[in-house]
Design a protein that fits this description.
- 67% of the residues lie in helices and 10% in strands.
- It is mostly helical.
- The protein has three domains: 31 residues; 87 residues, Winged helix-like DNA-binding domain superfamily/Winged helix DNA-binding domain (Arc Repressor Mutant, subunit A); 33 residues, no CATH class.
- The chain has a three-stranded antiparallel β-sheet.
- It is globular, with a radius of gyration of 19 Å.
- The chain starts with a helix and ends with a helix.
Amino acid sequence: MANKKLVTRSRRSFTRLARFFNQLMREQLMCGPVTVQQCYTLEALTNGPLSMKDLASEVALHQSTLTRVVEKLEKQNLVRRTRKSDNQRSVEVRLTDAGKQTYSFLDAAGSQMISDLLDLIPRERQTEIVNAMEEVAKILNPNNKEFLKLLQGCRCGISGGMDNES
């Protein structure tokens, strides 16, 4: 087991990073046409169409939540859903031309935001920090078997205990 102080520092840092980065994304997208979840969905589709199941895994959303996200994007003509000809139960989602254009704009704005953020870090540490983030992102990939094992271990049952106290 890792050093307890290091575990505590890491947990707090990950929590803060997640909260603050989401805040930064919300602020960045506030005047735009999409939400943070919708932006992540568009980004996930830039390499080609995905099934709803694969897309849900890629953007880390429950399929019912993703369905609502995709419905809103479809109403804005940013994505298109189609049923696969070989399996009518399977729905595939793809970017429309308008979706590609919208994501291209969001990607450029996001890249500028990250550039500005990196400029706040001393140049000699930037590569080291980006390498560390890439390493963590690789571990946290939903296609990583070790990550899936970690997810299975996250069933602590706290909510059940809290419900009993009400």
